[in-house]
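ok here's the first one, seq then struct tokens
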Amino acid sequence: MKHLISFIINISKVVAAFGIAAGVALAFINVIARYIFESSLTWAGELTIYLFLWSTFFGAVYCFKKDAHIAVDVFLEKAPPKFKKFLILLTLFISTIYVAAIAYFGYQYVLLYIDLGEISVDLNIPLWIPYVVVPISFAFSAIVLLYKIIEVIKTPADEIKIKSEAEQTLEELDSEELLKKVHQKTGGML
């Protein structure tokens, strides 16, 4: 299961990073073409939207793994350990049901678009292609959330800690790697 989660997270990071980079580059190229060469790529706007959309949805998968989604955890921090574990499991369970439902209905929506044979206006591609991001990314999110449920169930209530994304990243890095990154980011100033 750990390998599957690793695979999903790596795919999500690549798609999110590519979507943002390609979307920004395409938008920039289109602006340059419009203002300098007085002609634009008619399909660039639509493709940019799809790239940002895919980037957002796959970025959300990564955020589920890193607990980087917005959460109000003031009450959780004050709760006794067993109640905290119960609340975390309840939240994860509800979230899993929600994203699994979106994945299922997104899949149904994609099937509808395949049956209808709708084509995008500017790119001239079947519309199910950009819309397939919904069932894929939400299914990935459901798998990640299921894994998190298993992790929380296995963890004793006394050992459950709420960690920020930054704290999780620091734990993943060893001290040597952390020092290299700090040195790289600060240019050796620290």
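and now the second one, same deal
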Amino acid sequence: MLPRIVDFLRDLEKNNDRIWFQENKERYETVRKAYLAIVQQLINRISLFDPDIAGLEAKDCVFRIYRDIRFSPNKLPYKNYFGAYMAPGGRKSLKSGYYFHLEPGNSLLSGGLWMPDPKLLKIIRKDIYSQLDEFVAILEEPSFKAIYPGLEGETLKRNPEGYPPSFPHDDIIRHKDFCVMAVKPDSFFSQKNWQDETVAAYEKLLPFNRFLNYTVEEYLGEA
């Protein structure tokens, strides 16, 4: 079913307008239902090693395909991808979790924190700095690094205020996002065992997510 979802998204990318979408609404509903079923399968399997997401429902994790164009120069009405964020509380969660992004030519498996609010970001940096060796060990663990080469996202040009101008791994502290990702070709999802490999890749994220969520839970008053 995944190749059919990718085919739909590829067609949507070529015909990103409301007339085409309405003419293909039934097709969209079919592939969306299939994507929801796949995400639910992933949730159920991830929850076996990360009980924090047990009981999540796919509908609470999958993002809308409709783009918010109010403040964007890009006025295309639809996203050309399906995305789901599997974390405690679903897609609006502040916690580190597991992201499943299906897009022709740019699909990815990802985890961590994307664009945390400024107050939380400061606390995350502080906790990473105070436990830098532990955090670096997670990132550099060979089987983790083989899947997720390094932190992604936006960075500062210099160290934030309050940190020494130079210290080992100061590039980590400069990050505004603390997430990692593995880009997958479309052919990956044609493999019979793609879901096994995906779940195995997500399992490698567990120490990374737990490190970040310790800070997030303190921030939210849950620790």
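notes on #2: The first strand starts at residue 82 and ends at 86. The chain has one domain: 2-219.
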